[in-house]
Amino acid sequence: MGLMRINVGPIHPSTHGVLRLVVDVDGDTIKNVEPHIGFLHRGVEKLCETRMYMQNPSYFEKLDYISPLSWDEIYVSAVEQALGIPVKEAAQWVRVIQLELQRIANHLLWIGTLCNDIGQMFTTFMWAFRDRAQVLKLLEDVSGGRMFYVHLRLGGFQRPLPPDFAERTYNLTDYLERNVLQYRDVLDENPIFTERLRNVGAISERDAIDYGVTGPVLRASGVAEDVRKSKPYYVYDKLDFSIPTGTRGDSLDRYKVRYREIFESIKIIRQCLDMMPNEGDIVGMPIRLIGPPAKPDTVIVSRELPKGEGIIYMVPDKQRPYRVSIRSPGFINLAALPKLSVGAKFADLFAIFGSLDVIFGETDR
Amino acid sequence: MRTLEELKGKHFDYLKKITAVDYLTYLEAVYMLYNIEEKKDEIVKVKLELPTDKKSRLSLPTVMHVYKSADWYERELQEMFGIMIEGRDVQRLLLENWNGIDYPLRKSFEWGKDYRKEGETE
C-alpha cells in the first residue's frame, strides 16, 4: 500500500497552543512526521531589544503560561548577573520554594491534560486542576496575580511575604502529598492507562542525547541530568533531593519521572521551610533604580525549568538588552517528535506528543 | 566545523543551542555544547564578516552530521539571521508569508515596515 499524507490541524491540543502536523502514513503506521510551528510567534527576542530591562519580565511569563514564574526568574537572574546585583539570602530560599511550587503546578496540569489526550477523560483532569488551584491560590496571595505573577524584582521580590506563608505552605505540601498519592489508584494501577503508554514513543539514551531532548524526556531515557544538581543555583546545593530517572524512555517512563518529581519538589519545599532564616528582608530594588551594566560581554543563565533546561544568552547594553536569545525546552523536544513517532501507530501520535509537555508560547517565541 | 567534531570526540556530545548575535559590522554564531559525563560547558563562537556587496550571502557549513539536534536551530539561523546553511535544504520554520530577503533578528530590521511577500494579505 502506498503512502498517504494526512494533515493534522492547525489544532489546539489540550492546553499547549497551536500545532500543525503533516503525517505520512502507510496503512496505520507513521512513516514521517513534519511539525509546522510558528502560529504563536510574537518575536519576543526582538521585542526585548526595544524595552528597558525590567519591562521585559511580563513577556517572559507569556512564553510558558503554565509555569510563568520559571521564565520570569530566569530572565530576572540574567539581568541581575548583567548588572552585578546579588540576590538577598532570604529571597533565595523563597525563590526556590516558589519555583518548586510552580514545578508542581506545571506537572499537575500536564498529568491532567495527558489523560485527556489519550482518552482517559476528565477524572484525573478534574483532580489535577483541583490540586493545582490550591497551588495557584497560594502564589496568588504571595504575588497578587493568579496566573501571571511579575513579582520578582532585582535582588528579591516586590513585597514581603504574607505572615502565614510558612504555615500555609506546610499545609499545602501535606494536602498535595495526600491527594497526589490518590492518582496512583487511577493511573499507575490502571492497565488501560499504562498499556496505552508503555513502549510508545521510546527513545534510547544514545538517541536522546544526540537529538538533544531535555528535562524529564531526557531523564526518562536514563540520563540523570538536572541543572539543579550539575550547576546548582541559589540554595539547591544545600538541599537533599534525588533525580528520578527512567529506563525505557517511553511515554510511561516520562509520566513516572514527572510523577516522582512532584514528590521530590514537596521534599525540597519542606527542607527550605525548615532551613530558611525566619527573619530576613526579601524586598528587591524598585524598578527605577537601575544603573548601567557592570560590563560583562555576555551573560548565560541556565535553569532547570519544569519542562527541561532553559537558557538565556544575553548581551547586555546600557538601559536595555542588546540581544536576548532564548533556548526553550519545548522547541528542542518538539524537534525530536519525528524521531519518536516514526514506526508508531497513528493513534499513538498524541500519546507521544502529549508526553513531551510542549508548550507553544516558548516554542514559537 | 572541525572544532566541533574534535569536541564531540572529547565527549561534548550534547548540543544545547545554536544562536547568533548581530554586532553591526559582523555576525557572531554561537554554539553551546555540553559534556554530560563531566558536567562541563563549552562555547564555540564563529565570527562572520558582513559582505560589503548585497548579492553575496553569509554562510556556515551544516553540523547535522555531528549533532542531529542542530536541525531546527540551523533553520532558525537562516530564517532569522540570513546565515545560509551549506549542505542542507533548509526550509521555513517560524515565519509564514515572509519575503525571505530581510531577516528579523538583524539590527537592520525596521519597525513598522511591511515585510510580507508581495501580494500576500491577511
Key terms for this structure?
heterodimer; A: 365 residues; alpha+beta; Cytochrome-c3 Hydrogenase, chain B; three-stranded antiparallel β-sheet; 15 helices; 47% helix; B: 122 residues; Beta Polymerase, domain 2; two-stranded parallel sheet; 2 helices; 16% helix
Structure, explained:
The complex is a heterodimer of chains A (365) and B (122). Chain A has 365 residues and is an alpha+beta fold. Chain A has a single domain, classed as Cytochrome-c3 Hydrogenase, chain B, CATH 1.10.645. Chain A is built from 15 helices and 8 strands. In chain A, the strands form 3 sheets. A 3-stranded antiparallel β-sheet of chain A has the order 1-2-3. The mean pLDDT of chain A is 86. Chain B has 122 residues and is an alpha+beta fold. Chain B has a domain of 85 residues: NADH:ubiquinone oxidoreductase Nqo5 subunit (Beta Polymerase, domain 2). In chain B, 16% of the residues lie in helices and 29% in strands. In chain B, the strands form 2 sheets. Chain B has a 3-stranded antiparallel β-sheet with strand order 1-2-3. Chain B has a two-stranded parallel ribbon with strand order 4-5. The longest helix of chain B has 12 residues. Chain B is elongated. Chain B starts with a helix and ends in a 36-residue tail after the last strand. The chains are: A alpha+beta (365), B alpha+beta (122). Chains A and B meet through strand 7, strand 8 and helix 12 of A and strand 1 of B.
List the helices and strands and how they pair.
The complex is a heterodimer of chains A (365) and B (122).
Chain A: E1 4-11, E2 19-26, E3 29-36, H1 44-48, H2 57-61, H3 68-83, H4 89-117, H5 123-143, E4 152-153, E5 156-157, H6 165-186, H7 191-197, H8 205-210, H9 216-220, H10 227-230, H11 251-275, E6 299-305, E7 308-315, E8 323-327, H12 329-335, H13 337-341, H14 349-356, H15 360-364
Antiparallel strand pairs in A: 1-2, 2-3, 4-5, 6-7, 7-8
Helix pairs in contact in A: 3-4, 4-5, 4-11, 4-14, 5-6, 6-11, 11-14
Chain B: H1 2-9, E1 14-22, E2 26-35, E3 40-49, E4 59-61, H2 70-81, E5 84-86
Parallel strand pairs in B: 4-5
Antiparallel strand pairs in B: 1-2, 2-3
